[in-house]
Amino acid sequence: MTELISMTVRIKKMGKENNCDVLVIGAGVSGVAAALAAARAGVKTILAEKENFLGGVGYSGLFQYICGLYLNGNTRPKETLNDGIVREIVSHLNKLSPQRTIQKIGQVYVLPYSREDLSSVFNSLCRDEPNLNVMFNATAVSVRKKGKAIVEVGLDQSETLHKITSRIVIECTGDGDVSAMSGADFELSSPAKRQLAGFTVHLKGLKNADETLAIKVPYHLSQAVKMKLLPAYLRFTSFTKGEAANEGFLKLNLGHENSRRHEVVLNNAEKALRYLADKLPALKNACIAGTSLRVMDREGRRICGEYVLAEDDIINARKFNDGVVMNSWPIEIWDKRKGTIYKYVKPGDYYEVPFRCLKAKGIDNLLIAGRCISVTHEALGSTRVMGTCISLGEQAGLAAAFKVNNGKFPFGDIGKPQRTQR
Ligand SMILES: Cc1cc2nc3c(=O)[nH]c(=O)nc-3n(C[C@H](O)[C@H](O)[C@H](O)COP(=O)(O)OP(=O)(O)OC[C@H]3O[C@@H](n4cnc5c(N)ncnc54)[C@H](O)[C@@H]3O)c2cc1C
């Protein structure tokens, strides 16, 4: 018996039926790494993405730093904590913009990047890979299952339905769309507990902007909120300076009861900017030069895997027999009531993400990578950053190719990251 589960879409035409060894859905940072790893291991790979660009929110979110790349501690890291594709990407980024070097912010190390560089690196790596076929504007809308395995995924590309059969499916949609369609179990925090979502506003026209704006902007906005001049959620807005002297970023953080409609959020950002322009001379002539594509979720579905990584594992720097990705990034929770909360891994140490967090429970040929892996609400606060998501994607891609070639998942046999000299 096969079983079809689908999202509601209008499909006009039937497209080609296609098959591959590994189908990666979602071309955010985790999906690109997963697809590259699988294709490089010699298996026929399709990467399906609903937008027309690579990089997901790492591209469309207007972020400034890649987090989760380095071991945190007192020694400035020379290399990324994990090697493989993540190190290769960092090396390409360094070649494109050598002036962007590792920075220490508070207790953590980050790499500044531009989305243009990230896009350029991803595009060239994918273009160079003969076993990889990238499908843009292709949204996964249905899943056909037979027993405990996915046998076909329907991709809607401009209202044409392509039926893709694949031996392994890797879910990299960020929000676990495909796993949910497959009937996999997932956890979703209540709207009150879920981490705040974000919306980035790129400002230009700043004059004499300095580091104190990072304190002054939230201070003035919280005063305005107290006086009921601005919507309450604007009290969580942060500010960071841009690379150019005249640019900066306002980062709005929204609860899940707030409207996510672009025009509503943009309108509130404009109000906030007008208020700030009145209070802060540096922002007097500032204007909005761009925004993130949409409101972006920090937390969505967390797919249940064979193991659920928890806060204790992170804080106690736990290592596993099937540990495949090392991470030293703190638990960073954007809480609706308290704002940002950090809990750190001991300096100089890291925890491991076991392979079991990437294997969807109850579905034989479904792997998960990136933001929607099998973790608790708290643990997601650490695993969701880009550097970590890239390595999670790579490990899922390697494991998928291993299964295609050997008939079973490795569970620690491959993909064990090399311990690098530190
Ligand atoms: C407000 C905010 C600020 C952040 N700041 C930082 C930061 O400064 N540094 C940092 O390192 N991390 C940051 N992060 C975290 C990090 O950017 C993301 O968690 C990470 O990039 C997620 O990568 P991903 O590949 O799992 O998912 P995504 O980047 O979300 O990619 C998923 C992809 O799947 C596609 N997709 C979705 N559904 C379908 C479907 N049905 N069919 C086909 N394609 C589909 C999407 O279009 C998207 O391209 C931030 C996150 C947020 C929300």
Write structural notes for this entry.
The chain is of the alpha+beta class. It has two domains: 295 residues, FAD/NAD(P)-binding domain (3-Layer(bba) Sandwich), CATH 3.50.50.60; 95 residues, 2-Layer Sandwich (Alpha-Beta Plaits), CATH 3.30.70. 26% of the residues lie in helices and 27% in strands. It is built from ten helices and 21 strands. α6 packs across α7. The longest helix has 21 residues. It is globular. It starts with a strand and ends in a 16-residue tail after the last helix. The structure holds flavin-adenine dinucleotide. Flavin-adenine dinucleotide binds next to α1, α2, β4, β8 and α10.
Task: Give descriptors for this structure.
8-stranded mixed β-sheet, globular, alpha+beta, Alpha-Beta Plaits, 10 helices, 4-stranded antiparallel β-sheet, binds flavin-adenine dinucleotide, 422 residues
